[in-house]
Design a protein that fits this description.
This protein is of the alpha+beta class. It has one domain (11-111): Trna Endonuclease, Chain: A, domain 1 (3-Layer(aba) Sandwich), CATH 3.40.1350.10. Helices cover 25% and strands 40% of the residues. The N and C termini lie far apart (48 Å).
């Protein structure tokens, strides 16, 4: 068996690695790939009493920049709108604290780094 870390070849593998790391860090994953007509959120999870909408970004190497650089203003707006849809669709109470987190998955030469960034961005709506 190889000691090399898994190589995420697609967003799905990166999202699975992210979900595993989130669970190891105490998050409770409620949903993966929440879709609505407005778009998609990669992971919806709870971190204690905080409801987190989580964007997962993957980069193979540093030549493409840090994964979190790919969360553009347009992407933040889409995530915000989908989060609002989720809150309404599930009738989440108004007093629930909501946070937008990100998980950066970076493939190195011999490793795979998974970094959780709580509060990575604010809602754009």
């Amino acid at each position: 068996m190889s000691s090399r870390s898994p190589v995420p070849g697609s967003g799905g593998v990166a999202e699975q690695l992210a979900a595993e790391r989130l669970c190891q860090s105490g998050y409770v994953v409620r949903e993966k790939n929440y879709r609505c007509p407005l778009g998609e959120i990669d992971i919806v999870a709870e971190d204690g009493d905080v409801l987190c909408f989580i964007e997962v970004k993957f980069r193979a190497g540093e030549q493409q920049g840090h994964p979190l650089e790919a969360i553009t203003p347009a992407k933040r707006r889409t995530i915000s709108l989908v989060a609002l849809h989720y809150l309404q669709a599930y009738a989440v109470a108004d007093d629930v604290t909501v946070r937008f987190d990100a998980v950066a998955v970076t493939l190195g030469e011999d490793s795979c780094e998974v970094q959780i960034v709580p509060g990575a961005f604010e809602s754009s709506i």
